[in-house]
Design goal:
This protein folds into 3 domains: 1-54, no CATH class; 56-189, Rossmann fold; 209-371, NAD(P)-binding Rossmann-like Domain (Rossmann fold, 3-Layer(aba) Sandwich), CATH 3.40.50. Helix content is 48%, strand content 15%. It is built from 18 helices and 12 strands. It has helices at residues 3-15, 20-32, 34-39, 42-45, 48-52, 101-117, 138-152, 171-185, 209-226, 242-253, 276-285, 293-296, 328-336, 352-360, 368-371, 374-388, 394-418, 425-444; strands at 57-66, 72-83, 89-95, 124-129, 161-164, 234-237, 257-263, 266-269, 301-303, 316-318, 341-343, 364-366. The strands form 2 sheets. The chain has a 7-stranded mixed sheet with strand order 9-8-7-6-10-11-12, sandwiched between helices. Strand 11 (341-343), helix 14 (352-360) and strand 12 (364-366) form a beta-alpha-beta unit. The structure holds NADPH dihydro-nicotinamide-adenine-dinucleotide phosphate. Residues 165-168, 210, 239-244, 263-265, 306, 320-322, 345-347, 372, 375 line the site of NADPH dihydro-nicotinamide-adenine-dinucleotide phosphate (NDP).
Length: 447
């Protein structure tokens, strides 16, 4: 790390104490930028790094709601509007007990560069709450979402900030949030949230987009770098939520064999290939646990340790659950077992040690900012359809998504080469995303 970058990192740590995930996300980007800063003085002269690590606005608010027993509960809500140089802030909402300001800031920071990579006019933001949706009734979820939106609505609009889903926020929650926004704003602003239902402004393919997009990008990377494909490969996917389910669906469609999935309690291993209809029934309909898979497929195995999933031998690993779920030891185990490619569906799922191990061992590694950008890219396509008062068919959106993912791969790959980091998509994605945002900030002055 150069002295200048080290200085910025120290300021970030001092200003944002006790936020290790945010420090980790900033450090990864700053480390990648050394060759850019060496080549172009203009970014340093305009204080771009100093400005880009500081959110434009951070909103923290009380979310009171009443549970089914009539008891008043209080959670904390967050929205971090990180950077709007390229367009309205855009990024999901996460409802999970682990949420605090540091998690939202790490996600919001990454979102800036990811959104830039999609080539759509969207800035970066993120939000959420420490609310735990697990075990809550529909009524409790609705009352929580209404209370959350009662504060959030004054900070968002189609042209200001456009939230979407993330962990714990799916179609049901977006519905309740949109309903409350519509009531408070007294306007039918379809483009204020994405991930909406298909009958009221949602886009086909948005549900599938992050998982499908991940697999499109990994397929392109395999073709470009190893002249091979997903067909016939064994694939381990962590998680069993939105991203994991639709990554599984696309891998299976392309002839790959998904042998394992997990949730936060443990993982299932089914060497015959995961029965996806059953997983969808368990997770999307019953909202149950992945362990229930064994009730109908007794030949499968269950291990009550989700992070041990990486000990399974596979050709391709797709971490699609949460941050820091794949550490250095897990990475070494995967490498020893012959993994050829890793694609990050979740945000920051690999620890820095894991990432270093993959890069040092020439494993094809697609980092989250590039690999999971399909979700937000399709959200941007949803916004376009909303602005046009139109709805495209499935094939049209899917084709656009595929083209965007292929473009992102080549942009990151070519940028890595240009800056002397051939084959390193972490550096390529960070640099390509940064330059786009930094140039817009330069053009728009010190604000
Ligand atoms: P979901 O809530 O639909 O699913 C999350 C999955 O990950 C569940 O299986 C959950 O298990 C598991 N999980 C969550 N937290 C933990 C934990 N601490 N330890 C182990 N497992 C855990 O979320 P998504 O699928 O939408 O999101 C998954 C990841 O993908 C996140 O990192 C998210 O930021 C990222 N992402 C999502 C996008 C989207 O469009 N949805 C877009 C881009 C990135 P359990 O049910 O037991 O909690």
């Amino acid at each position: 790390m150069s002295g200048y970058v080290e200085e910025i990192m120290q300021t970030v740590k001092a200003r944002n104490e006790d936020q290790p995930e945010f420090h980790q996300a900033v450090k990864e980007v700053l480390d990648s930028l050394e060759p850019v800063l060496k080549k172009h003085d203009k970014y340093r002269e305009a204080g771009i790094l100093e400005r880009i690590v500081e959110p434009e606005r951070q909103i923290v608010f009380r979310v009171p709601w009443v549970d089914d027993q009539g008891k008043t509960r209080v959670n904390r809500g967050f929205r971090v509007q990180f950077n709007s140089a390229l367009g309205p802030y855009k990024g999901g909402l996460r409802f999970h007990p682990s949420v605090y300001l540091g998690i939202i800031k790490f996600l919001g920071f990454e979102q800036i560069f990811k959104n830039a990579l999609t080539s759509r006019p969207i800035g970066g933001g993120k939000g959420g709450s420490d609310f735990d949706p697990k075990g809550k009734s529909d009524g409790e979820i609705m009352r929580f979402c209404q209370s959350f939106m009662s504060e959030l609505y004054r900070h968002i609009s189609e042209t200001t900030d456009v939230p979407a889903g993330d962990i714990g926020v799916g179609g049901r929650e977006i519905g309740y949030l949109f309903g409350q926004y519509r009531k408070l704003a007294n306007a039918y602003e379809s483009g204020v949230l994405t991930g909406k239902g298909l009958d009221w402004g949602g886009s086909l393919v948005r549900t599938e987009a992050t998982g499908y997009g991940l697999v499109y990008l990994v397929q392109e990377m395999l073709k470009d770098r190893e002249n091979t494909s997903i067909e016939g490969k064994d694939v381990v996917i962590s998680g069993s939520g939105n991203v994991a389910i639709y990554a599984t669906e696309k891998v299976q469609e392309l002839g790959g064999n998904v042998v394992a999935l997990s949730d936060s309690s443990g993982y299932i291993y089914d060497p015959e290939g995961i029965k996806l209809d059953l997983v969808k029934e368990i997770k999307e309909v019953r909202r149950g646990r992945i362990k229930e898979y064994l009730d109908e497929v007794p030949s499968a195995e269950y291990t009550p340790d989700s992070f041990d999933i990486w000990s399974i031998k596979c050709d391709i690993a797709l971490p699609c659950a949460t941050q820091n779920e794949l550490d250095g030891d897990s990475a070494k185990g995967l490498i020893k077992n012959g993994v050829i490619a890793v694609g990050e569906g979740a945000n920051m799922p690999s620890t820095p040690e894991a990432m270093d191990a993959f890069l040092e061992n020439d494993i094809l590694f697609a980092p989250a900012k590039a690999a999971n950008a399909g979700g937000v890219a399709t959200s941007a396509l949803e916004m376009t359809q909303n602005a046009m008062w139109d709805a495209w068919d499935f094939e049209t959106v899917d084709q656009k998504l595929k083209e965007i993912m292929i473009d992102i791969y080549h942009n990151a790959n070519d940028t890595a080469k240009e800056y002397g980091k051939e084959g390193n998509l972490v550096a390529g994605a960070n640099i390509a995303g940064f330059i786009k945002v930094a140039d817009a900030m330069l053009a728009q002055g010190v604000i």
